[in-house]
Amino acid sequence: MPRNADNELHWQAIARRYELEPGPINLENGYFGRMSRAVQAQYLEHVAFINRSNAVHVRQRFEQGENQEIRRQLAELIEADTESVAFTRNATEALQSLIRNYNRLQPGDQVLISDLEYDTVKGAMRWLAGYRGVEVIEVSHAHPASFDSLLQTYRDAFAKYPRIKLMALTYVTHRTGLVMPVQAIANAAREQGIDVILDGAHALGQIEFNLTELGIAFAGFNLHKWIGAPLTLGFLYIAPERLADIDPDMGEFHYPASDVRARTSYSTPNFPALMTLPLVFEEHRALGGAAAKGARVNYLRDLWVSRVRPLAGIEVLTSDDPRLYCGITAFKFIGRDQQVMADRLLRDYGLFTTTRVGPSFGTCIRVTPGLVTSTADIDALVNAITELSPSHI
Fold first, then answer.
1. Which of 130, 218, 233, 364 could form a disulfide with 330 if both were Cys (CB 3.0 to 4.6 A apart)?
2. Distance CA 256, CA 363 (A)
3. Residue 204 clears pLDDT 70, i.e. is over it
4. Within a 13 Å sphere around the CA of 322, how many CA atoms are in the beta-carbon half?
5. Could you tell me which residue ranges the Aminotransferase class V domain spans (predicted)?
């Protein structure tokens, strides 16, 4: 186990850096993350400053160099070239731009999605059918999933549908936290001449990865989940040698076609949020980056999963293969209404979770610990699930 993942005193000290609203225990930290007190304070200072200075600072300082330095630091975060990244408001906006502007499709080509993709990604890929004349192929993954079964599903699709040119791939599925074997799938796709657009929304900040090693040329990410940034910040990534394969967004002209920033819509951004990013990146590194954050939430995940999985009437839906899970994991009360049970977890035990719909296993309850989650919080979850399970009743 990585150092400090199970050091409760260490993580209690980190938790004290964040403000918590009194109320239920939040086990839905996958929606968006918290800013630390220091980040929140600096963000509010920037809000006040930009409100005072208005366009004077933005035109004279921010647009004349500050923004490029922040972008350089973002690229450094993912070990990429500065010219490969452009800010967006979120991962969805980034992914929609990549899908909408991918220019290597011809009428009659096929594009591939799976049942585990985020719904807006599915919608964007289906949009291509009407506007590009392509055929959308959707595959379903077997449940329970294994490393080999996930890869084989794609190999089978590539063999069955030889006109596939583009596919969406989600690194961490938002329904159950299943981590896809991205490198193996991307390698198999590349062998068939298929490009991959990666949804990295839940991966950045809790999984260590290198996009070049993964074989990924196109990707979209959030900065407000596991990095600790204010809301409204995400970015897209395009490998510099593949920039020409993504058109400027809807004829965007404020940047030249040779600039990756032309692949996003030009608009007035959240300047105070962007100006706060250097502190966000500094805190992320000081905490140990994705290695430390991922190890901690994985440790908390293992604490509850190992005790809940044996219970009668409970099904944990996410694999225990360490290659296939992260801090996010889902379960279900077999044969019961999951929303009713999630409501009971909140009403009777003060535990806030969320339900998600999975195509092969119906509705599930998603549990996502965060950096402020304690082992006592996990004990409370285990106690609640145990008391609500048929074996206890």
1. 364
2. 46
3. yes
4. 7
5. 37-353
Please report the pLDDT score of residue 64 as a whole number: 87
Q: Residue 52 in 3-state DSSP?
A: helix
Percentage with pLDDT > 90 across the chain: 93
Specify the pLDDT at position 192: 97
CA distance 35 to 187: 36
What residues contact 240, with CB distance under 8 A and at least 6 apart?
81, 83, 84, 260
Place domain 8-30+289-388 in its CATH homologous superfamily: Aspartate Aminotransferase, domain 1 (3.90.1150.10)
Residue 213 has pLDDT above 70, yes or no: yes
- 372 closest CA partner among 26, 137, 85, 79: 26
Helix (H), strand (E) at residue 85 = strand 85-88
Instruction: From 225, 275, 219, 310, select the one nearest 63 (Cα to Cα).
Output: 275
φ/ψ of 371, rounded to 5, equals -70, -20
Q: Using alpha carbons, list the distances in angstroms from residue 333 to 241, 341, 344, 363.
A: 48, 8, 12, 10
Residues 6+ apart with CB under 8 A from 351: 24, 25, 27, 345, 380, 381, 384
Cis peptide before 144 (omega within 30 of 0): yes
Q: Return the percent helix, strand and coil in the chain, to nearest 5.
A: 45, 15, 35
Beta bridge partners of 315: 332
CA 77, chain centre distance (Å)? 15
**Bridge partners (DSSP) listed for residue 110:** 135, 164
* Separation between Cα atoms, residue 280 and residue 224, nearest integer Å: 10
Angle at CA of residue 353, ends 350 and 359, nearest 5°: 150
Q: How many CA atoms lie within 13 A of 387 on its CB side?
A: 10
Please name which of 195, 146, 204 lies closest in space to residue 172, comparing C-alpha atoms: 204
Structure token digits, residue 12: 């209690």
Give the 3-state secondary structure of residue 230. Answer: coil
**How many residues does the structure list for the chain?**
393
What are the C-alpha distances in Å from 64 to residues 60, 70, 71, 182?
Answer: 6, 12, 13, 38
Query: What are the DSSP E strand ranges found in 159-209?
Result: 164-170, 195-199
Fold of 43-283: Aspartate Aminotransferase; domain 2 (3.40.640)
Q: Where in the chain is the domain with CATH 3.40.640.10?
A: 43-283
